[in-house]
Fold:
Amino acid sequence: MMDDRLKDKTCIITGSGGSIGRAACLRFAAEGANVVGCDIAPEGAEETLRLVEDAGGSMISIHPADLTDKAQCERVVAAAVDRFGSLDVLFNNGAMAYFAWIEDMTDEMWSKTINEELNLVFLMTRTAWPELVKSKGNIVNTASLSAWAGIELLPGLAHTAAKGGVLAMTRQLAMEGRKHGIRANSVSPGTIETNQTRFILEDPEWCRIQLGRAMINRMGQPEEVAAAVAFLASDDASYITGTDIAVDGGVRAW
Ligand SMILES: NC(=O)c1ccc[n+]([C@@H]2O[C@H](COP(=O)([O-])OP(=O)(O)OC[C@H]3O[C@@H](n4cnc5c(N)ncnc54)[C@H](O)[C@@H]3O)[C@@H](O)[C@H]2O)c1
Structure:
């Protein structure tokens, strides 16, 4: 039986149609939150909404919403406040990266990754900020193991730059938020089992590099990231700000 740590807290979860976003919507709703989902891809967002409603949760969903567009960010925040009266938590989870080794990294792939992984976090956060000031709310950002270390087989130059930016920006947000009672933290997932990462299980070289480095020798589940995010978003984390929780099975410590 889950407790009600997020009871009546209005929480925006971006990328609600994706793997970790969906797990977070279900977890937050189960802990009593009013969930506001949003995603650029309508099908996944629709499915998450259905799953949360079937589980008896409270949720609205704004989709399609491209959060690299300021007007769409404003639409999402306005919908949260219109429906639920305030905004307490912003979970910046949605992102899209483009992968190539430096020799093949085009200008377009570089700038699209920065735009779709980093700029959207800034835009959503700046838009939500006045409401978070009112509620003394908090922010959880999704950084990545890639913000901390290179991954041998992953052509993630732009991705590391964007996620490194998210990680550093979170510290600054915590610093700027302190006088308003706003906390800001991040999670850094390692290899989480999703549709995009499942191929690793069939590839011995990927398995060796990715899973061989984890003390807990398996992929993480989206629910295990969602659990860390729910903790950070709740009052259980009331003395925690400006930091990052690795959800990577111990990779960073080894
Ligand atoms: N899966 C992993 O192993 C892993 C590891 C480290 C970090 N992460 C991070 O976790 C987060 C979620 O990843 P996931 O594995 O659930 O991926 P996912 O692709 O399943 O979900 C991401 C969601 O974000 C949405 N999105 C992308 N760009 C958007 C935009 N401009 N506006 C609105 N929505 C947008 C997508 O449509 C998608 O539904 C991402 O920030 C990702 O970088 C994942």
